Amino acid sequence: MRVDQALAEVLARCAPLPAEPAALDVLTGRVLAADVDAPCDLPGFDNAAMDGYALALADRSAHAGEQFEVAGEQAAGDPARASTTACAIMTGARLPDGLDTVVPIEDTRPADPGTGEGPARIVLTAAVRPGQHVRRAGEDLVRGTPALSAGTRIGPAQLMLLAALGVDAAPVRRRPAVAVLCTGRELVDDPRQPLASGEIRNSNGPFLRAALAAAGARVLPGPASVPDDPAAFGTALVAALADGADLVVSTGAVSMGRYDFIPEVLAALPARTVFHRLRMRPGKPLLFAVLPGGALFFGLPGNPVSSAVGLRFFVLPALQALLGVPGERPLQARLSREARKKSGLTLFQKARVFQQPDGALAVDLLPGQESFRIAPLARANAWAVLPEDGESLAAGTPVAVYPLAPADAWPDPSPPATRP
Ligand code: AMP
Ligand code: MG
Question: Which ligand is nearest to the CA of 199?
Fold first, then answer.
């Protein structure tokens, strides 16, 4: 199956999970299940943007040399009050009723020594526009208008906005529960355990758990790895379903070797295999099935980079769809040198995106693309995707580049909406 067709098959089975309320202090990393409208104006009241003096100018400007009588002071946190003369004012202080303009202290000097509390009269040392240095109520957000839209992942900035608005809870998507099952009798899970001859460390397990948790999944506890034994794997699979897994991700045992037993375990369940083997490299034997009860199964090949590609381009998009996050669109970057590939396979390449002197994005395909090589993956800052058709891509050809994880911080390739 083609990669794009396979992804469509996956996403067709990923309706957003139900919503649940979450309190502000546990919202980080969660995805909004509904739009949040501003429950109040932000700022909530007209206030000073500078330390200085609040004046009543109405519609006129004031010129340098003009004097104002000053009475009293308004600090941040002081309640509303009316004033008929100018007053000293601090940043964030509510503008007294009757005053409409703030002149920064550095644009004034005392007209007389005053009483020690501050001058009783000030002289302007610069011209003043009416309404200057005032932050208007609702200038940031007007009550009842959209603050954040459904599908937004809550990060620190979104949390800042919700906190400012006094939103104490919001509806979010239930976190998808994901089980990770690494197969292979060669795998050692305990990093302190010495390796016996022929053994290797389980690196896919920690990778998958970390990546899934970072993407918003609830990673279920479970065996770190399972031996190459169909019965043991079947038992672990059934246990994951009993634990409420929405997704089960396995690594290994989906290729053509003697111990590649996953297809037979799935057939016996019975699960419905949607695809097994894609026109891509690495990670060609990727298997996708629907388990009894409707949970989705991704059988990723065991080679570390194959499992990383399967995770990045199939499992994480499924997770995003379950969370109601809109689909991502890649940026285009120019190949820094010519690339050759086999026609008929989409190629996923460990890559570094960088900026050329003219400002354009370029991408360097890293040496060491073999699917067992983890070190270049740890140096990569992106995946480059070379399309299925074609064998030779000249230097300068634009290709799709994706961040290592679907990231809200990655620039949206569409130009900003035109501003009024
Ligand atoms: P398999 O897909 O089971 O044939 O495994 C392919 C290759 O990936 C073999 O070299 C395995 O030893 C290796 N491999 C499988 N699972 C893991 C794992 N969890 N961590 C690191 N390497 C693995
Ligand atoms: Mg294996």
Answer: 1
